[in-house]
Design goal:
Radius of gyration: 20 Å
CATH architecture: Orthogonal Bundle
CATH superfamily: Farnesyl Diphosphate Synthase
Number of domains: 1
CATH topology: Farnesyl Diphosphate Synthase
Order of helices and strands: EHHHHHHHHHHHHHHHHE
Strand order of the largest sheet: 1-2
Distance between the termini: 45 Å
Largest sheet: 2 strands, parallel
Helix content: 55-70%
Oligomer: single chain
Shape: globular
Structural class: mainly alpha
Strand content: under 5%
Number of strands: 2
Low-confidence stretches: 92-96, 315-330, 364-370
Length: 370
Amino acid sequence: MASSPEFTLPPFYCPLPAACSPLTEVAGAHALEWMASHGLCGAPETRDRIHDAQVHRLLGLMVPQVENEEVFLTLTCFANLVLLAEDLLFDTSHPASGLSGIIEQAGRVMRVMESPGFRASAADDPYTLALVDVMRRMRAESSPARVGRLIHEMRRCFAGAIRGINALQRPGGLTEDQYLSIRLDDVAGHLTVVIIEMCGAEPLADDAWQSPAVLACLESAAMVGALDNDLFSYRKESVHDLNLINVVQETRGLSLQRAVDETMVVRDRVMQLFLRLREDLLVSAPRPLRYLLVQLGQALSGHVEWGLTAPRHAAAHAVAASADEAFASATCWTDSPSSTDTRPLRYPSISWWWDQIGRTHGESAPRTNE
């Protein structure tokens, strides 16, 4: 597996094979042309961000079987805007603006997204104009409930990112549970689930979204993706950002390699839970839920493939080959998890997921008196 003088990245466990939508390159070309039409590709650094992120490829791997092509094209444009918002607001903000400036800018983005009749003018910046346009397209192509969930999850992403920045600035370290609570939001895991669901022909019913078993399954998948991101992006971010590797190293007093290995153990235990919950739900899942669960399983493999090959995350020395060549090594994967422990992890914010094993999407866990 990938290694450096500091640590060796263990292989990833995911028994569900990746697949890629045949619309991927079409969507990428469409998004690039659309962003250029709004003046978002003029600066070299912006073009580099778009190229290095390969958002269209990520979306193609996340949604291998697209049932609504127009929505998929629009979501590819939207996902590129999310990337730019993340980079421009949170990665490269001027220190002078501080957290208050970031909150103000994030609030401005959300107000545009929430306003069906937002009156853009020529005085607005290109990002605002593009956001108004993509939300107009989204409302024309998708249902109000789906668009509402997308907006809600974008707000959750901003809230998580702001919590993360605040955690970095305050004295004292985070517990592992506090970190996982933040990471589930700021990594856009919930947003990704909603994006996948929007590409299906039939919407998922409200009672399924609110089911504890379904929520546990979807959140566990999102957490796997979050921890995968921590692992494959560590060389890029290292000590400069929140990362479970850093938190584990500090809270448990471990070496870097041991912290990496322990992070993979947490990841693999959550992965095994997701697979069990997914298997339970697929037995009687209605078609919209089945669509989401099938796509989501493949998305986890695809996310790792993207993360290990996209220039945005790959180490400089690993980018020389093409993405396919770089990912051809079988050592990226393992057939066995790093831990076979099926007990709930001792993190209060997520341990309830394990209570949902064996329950259908319409059942709730029994109340207990403790």
